[in-house]
Amino acid sequence: MSEIDLLKGLDHVVMEVSFALAPLLLFFIFFQIFFLKLPRQKIIDIIKGVILTFFGLILFLHGVHVGFLPFGEAMGEKFAALPYKWIIIPVGFVLGFVATFAEPAVRILNYEVDKVTAGYIPQRLMLITLSIGVGFSIALSMARVIYDLPLMYFVIGGYGIVIVMAWFTSETFTAIAFDSGGVATGPMTVTFITALSLGIAGAEDSGRSAIDGFGMIALVALAPILSVLTLGVLYKFKENKSSQ
């Protein structure tokens, strides 16, 4: 890839990040002047953080457009061309597990859960639970695309199970579970796995369009809820057993 291709679209990314961060920065300045009155050193630290965030978002988003999305689509097309398409299902599980394991938002949630619960729900256990849940959801998404399974069956059935499981776990796990669904659909999962799914759907010879690759994020948002609720049920069962 030439240098010109590598920098193509960078100016648009810079503008998008600038417009996204500017309102937040203006709000902070307003509250700092009239309400917060933070000390000088704290202001300096916040400014450093904003600068790092600005350049970090630019590098990440540009990297997504230049390499992440094209690579995911190309990978999906290659998998779809294989004579044994079932291999995409276990591969999807592995990719979903790894993507969630590297998801920054998931790490932050796990840290906060560990801190608030004083180690009752460890970071490592939450991370593995969420990664396994998302891995299964990606595997199901790949199966749905390959075998042309209706999305509504998974969504309605999945949330029906969620409602039932919520009755058998504590409010703590229920609250954490629904937050987990949001953080799991972060930039790592959405960018690469969505591109992979669209690449597979677009390369299928069944006459379906690449639009069939959408719907995967709905399953990714559902899977962590189910996995955390399952963990909550296991915790409750263990507590009831120890109290007997």
What is the compact description of this entry?
The protein is mainly α and 244 residues long. The protein has helices spanning 3-7, 10-36, 40-80, 88-101, 104-116, 123-147, 151-166, 171-184, 187-203, 216-243. The chain has ten helices and no strands.
Number of helix segments? 10
Instruction: Give the helix level as a range of percent.
Output: over 70%
State the low-pLDDT regions, or none.
none
Structure class: mainly alpha
E-strand count: 0
Q: Give the biggest sheet.
A: none
Q: Beta-strand percentage?
A: under 5%
Overall mean pLDDT: 87
Distance between the termini: 66 Å
> How are helices and strands ordered from N to C?
HHHHHHHHHH
Given the C-alpha coordinates, what overall shape results? flat
Give the C-alpha Rg: 21 Å
Task: Write down the domain tally.
Answer: 2
Model description:
By secondary structure, this protein is mainly alpha-helical. It has 2 domains: 1-69, no CATH class; 82-239, no CATH class. 82% of the residues lie in helices and 0% in strands. It contains 10 helices and no strands. Helix 2 runs antiparallel to helix 3, helix 6 (123-147) packs across helix 10 and helix 7 (151-166) packs parallel to helix 10.
